[in-house]
Amino acid sequence: MVANVRDVLAGLFFVAVGVAVFLLSRGYGIGTPAHLGPGVFPMLLSGLLVALGIAIALVAVRDKVAAAVGLSWRPLLLVTAAVGVFGFGLDTLGLFASVALMVLVSRAARSGQSVMESLVMALVLGAAASFLFYYLLGLPVPLWPAFAA
């Protein structure tokens, strides 16, 4: 069952009240951006109330689901960051450095990794990706950092 039933019920109550206020406030005019009508404020508050209710319910459920599934935030965030490092660094750092940094960041997602093993893997995969995509396939991506060229 849910870890904190009261929080889930409170969140669902906020959602229900927010939806009810939104439905009741539809009869009021919202006006124009220059001259807001009487329906704008209740609609905005009802939207905030629905968002708050969803957030409260999800926080109460999240902890229980994370414990049951064994979800850990560190790997999820670091692997996502590794993809971002590659995507944002490709133009400025070049293919080799972007792949190497992506490997290092993603290897940090798992605890107990050897630093030397991670460095060797980053160098090997950076070289392999550079050889495959730059030399063999001829993709038009920079191989080295822009400031080194």
UniProtKB/TrEMBL annotation:
What is the protein named?
A: Tripartite tricarboxylate transporter TctB family protein
Q: Which domain of life is it from?
A: Bacteria
Task: List, for all copies, the residue spans of the domain called DUF1468.
Answer: 9-142
Q: Which InterPro entries match?
A: DUF1468
Which positions, given as ranges, span the membrane?
12-29, 41-61, 81-106, 118-137
Entry keyword set: Membrane, Transmembrane, Transmembrane helix
